[in-house]
Structure formats: C-alpha cells, structure tokens
Amino acid sequence: MEFAVNVPICAGSSEYSTLAFCDEISWADQRDYAVDIEALGFDGLAIPDHIMAGAGPTTEGLSTLAGLAGATEDVYLYPKTFNDQLRHGPLLAKALAQLDHISEGRLKVGMGAGWKQDEAEAFGYEWPSAPERLRRMEETVEVCKELWTGDDVDYDGDYYELDGADGRPHPIQDPYPPIMIGGGGEQFTLRITAKHADTWNYWGDLEMLEGKLDVLREHCETYGTDYDAIEKSWFARCIIRETEAEVEELLDAVPRFRPENLDDDEFHLVGTPEQVAADIERYREAGFEEFVVEFVDFPDTTGPELFADEVMGQF
C-alpha cells in the first residue's frame, strides 16, 4: 500500500477549499510542508490542478510540481488530477517528460477532464460537454504515449494532428510514467481507464465505489485488460487527532465534515488513529492500494505526524 498527501493549491472560501486554518496559500508553505511530509515517510505528494479555485491565490500545478521536484528526493510526484481542458495535449506531453527528468523518474501522471466550469471560463477557455472533454482527454493520453516513446510521431485525431513531432527527450521511466485516470463516469471515464490507465482514482463512500469497480471490471473484460493490474486509488480529506474530544474540537472548525453535512455518497477519514485505520482497512479489503489524503489542518503538520506515527505502520 502507498500513502500520498495532497499539497493544497488554494485556500479561502470556495466549494473546493476545505482548509480550517489557512486563508492563503504560499509557495513557501507548500515547499516546507512537502519537505515535512517526505521526512514523515509518506510515499508521494499530490498536487491538485486548478487556476482559480479559492477566494485567495491559486498556484499553478505543473510549475508547483517542478518546484517540489527540486525540494524533495524520494517521494513520487503526482498531479492529481491534470485538467486536460486547460492544456494543449502534445505540449503537456513534452512538459511531463521534462518533469520526469527533473524529478529523476519520480513522476506519476494523473489525468482528468475537469469539472470546474467557472474557472475555465474566467480564463477564456471554452467548456464543451463532458463527453467531448473526455474524448479529448483520451486523445491527450494517446498522444502522450506516442510522444513519450517516439521521435517522428504522426497522429490524426479529432482534436490533435501531429506531423513528424519529436517527443525527445523521452521520460526517464520506461516506457513512460504511470498514468492515473481520475473520475467516476461509468460510460466514458471508466472505459478510458480500462483501455489506457495504470491507476484509477476516485473519492467517496465505499458502497458507491464498489459499484464503480464492477463497471471498471466489465470495461476491462471488453478490452482484454487485466483488471487486477490497474491500481485502485482513493482520495479523502482527513481529520485525525489522538482523542475523540480533540476530533470534536477540530470538527467545530470544519463542521462541513460532520456526518450530517456530508452527501450520501461522500466519505472522509475522520477520527482517532484507531478509527481512521479501521476505515482504511475497509477500503483496502475492497481492493484499494493507494490512499491520497488531504489534511484539513494544513499547513500545520499535527495531522500528518499522527497519521504517519500511528496509522501507516499498520499497513
């Protein structure tokens, strides 16, 4: 099992930011936090991909990852999840190959079709329907694989046309960095996952996720893909303290995570180390192998320290 930690890219009031004690994100906080997370023994650092997601500044994901590559040594670096709609796929392939070199082969690529329409339109991007965004994302994945392995690439798609494109320098990882597809759409996203991905990541209640896994298994059968070879990854926000009284005190600051305030298919890691470990075990038994957590007490490291000391060692 692997444990990665989200390094937030935005704060302040929004539907995305849920940080209890951080009103504004700075690069210095991100860098120092990432260094602390690595020292605690976590396996990876995940960076969300937004350009305007909180009331305060929002840091750009690709450049943040490049900075963290220079500030860390061993953790894998995980864009989770690049919004395909915001970037030109072939140029993204070049940037990611270079990032794999900068990080000395520590890149894990997360791809998605995006969900936050208002930020895209604020920056002048068009926002087509979800099926169209997903079809373009699939072409981006195909183009990335071609450029990561070829030096004279032709590609004739609906969204990209390449004519003798040189993908060198290719990534360090052979044949290329692992690819995660993020999202729960059963008709498109899980089909693309079965066809192209090394990892699937989603969030939410286990009962809902088990239904998604059944659909993924069916798509794998269609494509002749080994279902068991696809890593299953779960994202959750985390509130963890030594005692239930301390958990309640933290929930007073973020009541959004109380059970009565959660959507029916939503679930997060909230409780003492024993309670959090028990929840992780339920997901592990269902087949999840990677856990990506965002601690709501960022930039404080009390949560990550307790999680590393008393939870990770059980797995």
Automatic annotation (TrEMBL):
Domain of life: Archaea
Record domain Luciferase-like: where: 1-253
Keyword Transmembrane helix carried by entry: no
Matching InterPro entries: Luciferase-like_dom, Luciferase-like_sf, SsuD_RutA_monooxygenase
Alphabetized Gene3D superfamilies for the sequence: Luciferase-like domain (3.20.20.30)
Keywords: Flavoprotein, FMN, Monooxygenase, Oxidoreductase
Example of a GO MF term: monooxygenase activity
Pfam family, one: Bac_luciferase
EC id: 1.-.-.-
Record's protein name: LLM class flavin-dependent oxidoreductase
Record organism: Halolamina litorea
